[in-house]
């Protein structure tokens, strides 16, 4: 090839590059500390890695979709909104639902008790984590809430659920207002079930059957997917998770090939 002439990427070269990338990814996790050391021997840095940057935890950037502020203006699984990917540092620290550690704190709230509005096209950073995986349970040293028994459990933290309707209302006090607020929260969680899915590549998706939310000061959601409705096999590799918190569209993928803990699939 003459010097300065453009290089042509052949199919063989492309396959070699792809294989090299997969091999590098494999070396990143293969034989890592979680298989070499007992959970009681993990230090704080290793626990942080499992909870925020491991095969079971993805740091994501969620895009704010048009129509910001509602409890989900459309199902994210219907397409049309680009999803966030990994590689962006998410919020750390704090405590949400009892038994769930390492969740992120949302950005500041306005004086009316709601979150400040965000423009369509802006972003929120957070973490998506497979909470029911044994290494995550070992790292947090606390069980999941009983409501999630026999469920795959995935959490989203650091991305607040904004309600434009709540932001537009004046601040009120009293038992009636508290009951209305609680009913609104319950309704929003029911809506999230329809907006949240888990979909193995080549298989039908399932929707979340159980949803719980953390305290008002912290932004964490737990989504439960029935193990009776979805069983993973050795042939499954890629699993897509998707939800919509208000108008923040959250999407990421988990790769079961790397979610192995002591030679067993850990989900």
Task: Characterize the largest beta sheet: strand count, sense, and whether it forms a barrel.
Answer: 9 strands, antiparallel
Strand residues, percent? 15-25%
Count the beta strands: 11
Low-confidence stretches: 1-7, 14-30, 68-75, 77-115, 164-172
Radius of gyration: 20 Å
**Structural class, from helix and strand content?**
alpha+beta
Fraction of residues in helix: 10-25%
Q: Total number of helical segments?
A: 6
Mean pLDDT: 73
The total number of structural domains is 1
Distance between the termini: 50 Å
Shape: globular
The SSE order reads HHHEEHEHHEEEEEEEE
**Order of strands in the sheet with most strands:** 5-4-8-9-1-2-3-7-6
General description of the model:
The protein has one domain. It has six helices and eleven strands. It is globular and about 45 Å long. The strands form two sheets. The chain has a nine-stranded antiparallel beta sheet. Strands 10-11 form a two-stranded antiparallel sheet. With 267 residues, the chain is of the alpha+beta class. Helices cover 24% and strands 22% of the residues.
């Amino acid at each position: 090839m003459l010097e300065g002439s453009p290089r042509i990427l052949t199919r063989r070269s492309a396959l070699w590059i792809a294989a090299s990338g997969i091999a590098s990814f494999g070396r990143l996790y293969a034989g890592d500390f979680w298989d070499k050391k007992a959970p009681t021997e993990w230090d704080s840095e290793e626990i942080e890695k499992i909870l925020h940057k491991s095969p079971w935890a993805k740091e994501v950037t969620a895009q704010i979709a048009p129509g910001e502020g509602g409890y989900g203006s459309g199902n994210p699984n219907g397409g049309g909104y680009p999803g966030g990917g990994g590689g962006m540092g998410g919020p750390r620290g704090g405590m949400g639902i009892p038994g769930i550690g390492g969740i992120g704190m949302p950005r500041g709230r306005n004086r009316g008790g709601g979150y400040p509005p965000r423009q369509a096209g802006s972003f929120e950073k957070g973490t998506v984590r497979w909470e029911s995986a044994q290494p995550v349970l070992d790292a947090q040293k606390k069980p999941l809430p009983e409501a999630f028994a026999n469920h795959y459990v995935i959490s989203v933290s650091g991305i607040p659920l904004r309600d434009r309707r709540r932001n537009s209302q004046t601040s009120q006090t009293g038992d009636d207002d508290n009951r209305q607020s609680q009913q609104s929260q319950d309704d929003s969680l029911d809506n999230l079930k329809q907006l949240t899915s888990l979909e193995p590549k080549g298989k039908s998706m399932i929707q979340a059957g159980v949803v719980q939310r953390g305290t008002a000061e912290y932004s964490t959601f737990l989504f439960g997917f029935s193990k009776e409705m979805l069983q993973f096999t050795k042939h499954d590799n890629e699993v897509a998770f998707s939800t919509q918190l208000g108008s923040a569209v959250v999407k990421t993928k988990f790769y079961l090939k790397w979610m192995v803990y002591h030679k067993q699939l850990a989900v």
